[in-house]
Design brief:
Belongs to the dihydrofolate reductase family. About 30% of the residues lie in helices and about 25% in strands. By secondary structure, it is α/β, with parallel strands linked by helices. Strand 10 and strand 11 form a beta hairpin.
């Protein structure tokens, strides 16, 4: 029986660089350079990520974002754990120091959010209290040693209560790879495996190399039928993320971006 919560890998990649015919051509999709993004800050992609990962399918639910420790640490301190999501940090550190740090930051984040909410409530005009309040997603965090345990805890602590929304994997490469390996071995418990990908290229490089230098790569070189994937339609991707995705290239600054989707078959 299919699991009600598909696992969606959400990732931004730059295509493989073009090579001369005499050189070896690489097909690897770049996702990182020296522990950070290879390209300049892209507002279009960042706001897309924020909307998609924080917007639950129904009121009263909360989406989960699964990530490695390095990805968690890459989030600005004042923003972590990310609001209105369940941040699941996967780490091999079993000493407890990572867990202590994440849960300590969770307390501080909740306190800052509560203060901000109280200030906003106090600033409301008379009569606003009669407006029906929307049930907001919670801000939570858990620390686990593996992706398998991440999915198990999400199912038990949130899924069985009906409050788990969508489940995303947001990086890095090892966690993406773990998800793909689990799916291949049947370890996702009937979950569909999807990829929502933002392609990033340099603007105005016609017939040249519009990719960015990378030293970290997405663990799948080809997302096509030959490698067991199918390209999703724009309508399907729009349904997955909860907003319209047309699959067209869009310009921002010195780059162009395109949102597309794939599903493992």
């Amino acid at each position: 029986m299919p699991h009600p919560n598909p696992l969606t890998l959400i990732v931004a990649t730059t295509p493989p660089p073009l090579r001369h015919a005499t050189e070896e051509t690489t097909t690897r999709l770049g996702i990182g350079l020296k522990g950070t993004l290879p390209w300049p800050r892209i507002k279009t992609d960042m706001t897309f990520f924020a909307r998609v990962t924080s917007r639950p399918p129904t009121s009263g639910q909360t989406n989960a974002i699964i990530m490695g420790r390095k990805t968690y640490d890459s989030v600005p301190v004042n923003l972590r754990p990310l609001a209105k999501r369940i941040s699941v940090v996967v780490t091999r550190d079993m000493t407890g120091s990572v867990k202590k740090g994440v849960l300590g930051e969770l307390v501080g984040r909740r306190q800052r959010m509560a203060k901000k909410s109280a200030e906003a409530a106090a600033a409301k005009k008379d009569g606003d209290e009669n407006v029906e309040k929307k049930v907001e997603p919670v801000t939570d965090a858990i620390v686990v040693p593996s992706l398998e345990q991440a999915l198990e805890r999400l199912d038990v602590e949130y899924g069985e209560k009906g409050i788990l929304g969508k489940v995303f994997v947001i990086g890095g490469a090892e966690i993406y790879n773990a998800a793909i390996r689990l799916q291949g071995g049947g370890g996702l418990g009937g979950r569909a495996l999807r990829v929502v990908m933002t392609n990033v290229v340099r603007k105005g490089v016609d017939g040249g190399d519009g990719s960015f230098e990378c030293d970290t790569f997405f663990p799948v070189d080809r997302l096509d039928e030959g490698s067991g994937w199918r390209a999703a339609s724009s309508a399907e991707v729009s349904e997955w993320v909860g907003e319209e995705v047309d699959g067209l290239w869009k310009s921002e600054g010195d780059v162009e971006v395109q949102m597309v989707g794939f599903e493992k078959v």
